[in-house]
Every structure is written in C-alpha cells, then in structure tokens.
Design brief:
Order of helices and strands: HEHEEHE
CATH architecture: 2-Layer Sandwich
Radius of gyration: 14 Å
CATH topology: Alpha-Beta Plaits
Strand order of the largest sheet: 1-4
Strand content: 15-25%
Distance between the termini: 26 Å
Number of domains: 1
Number of strands: 4
Shape: globular
Bound molecules: iron/sulfur cluster
Number of helices: 3
Length: 88
C-alpha cells in the first residue's frame, strides 16, 4: 500500500499475495466461529455465526496462519484453494 506521496505504508510482505484463497464449504460449516477468532484479518462472521471470508488472495504474511485455521476447523469445512481467479 502506498501513501499519497507514493511511499510504502506497510511492510512489503504484507502487501504481497500468494495466489491462494481461503474458501468455506457452507454445507459442512457448523458456525463454530473458530476461524474468525483465529484469523480475523480474513474472516468475519455473519449474523448467524457463519464465516464471511475475504475473497482476495491470502497475503503472504498470513499464509501460515491460514493453513493453521484450515487444519483447526472442527468441521473440516475450510480449505485453501490455489487456483487463481476462482471464487466460491
Ligand atoms: S471454524 Fe469451520 S465450522 Fe467453524 S465457522 Fe469456521 S468454517 Fe465453520
């Protein structure tokens, strides 16, 4: 991200993306909300407690954390999709 003068305002790694997107299977998800607790940068909960996931590619600085969230989902409803340009 750049400021008005064109200078960087964030560390470079935070601005880079890996091309993977975090996706949820809405059929499997049981609205534990754990994903939003562990990765609030990319996941918010809707009014019923189901995740609303940022469709932007996962920033490089959050890739490891996103992997941990995928592994931690008790319903196995999350995955990282490496195909660019596809959305759920
Ligand atoms: S942790 Fe898994 S089951 Fe819980 S809200 Fe997130 S995707 Fe759904």
């Amino acid at each position: 991200m750049l400021d008005a003068a064109g200078g960087a305002t964030e560390p470079l790694a935070a601005a880079l993306v890996c091309g993977h997107r975090l996706r949820v299977n809405p059929i499997s998800c049981v609205a534990h909300g754990l994903c939003a607790e562990l990765l609030p940068e990319l996941v918010e909960l809707d009014e019923w407690g189901y995740p609303v996931i940022d469709r932007a590619p996962v920033p490089v600085g959050l890739v490891a954390q996103a992997r941990r969230v995928v592994a931690a989902c008790p319903a196995l409803a999350l995955r990282q999709d490496g195909r660019r340009g596809r959305h759920s």
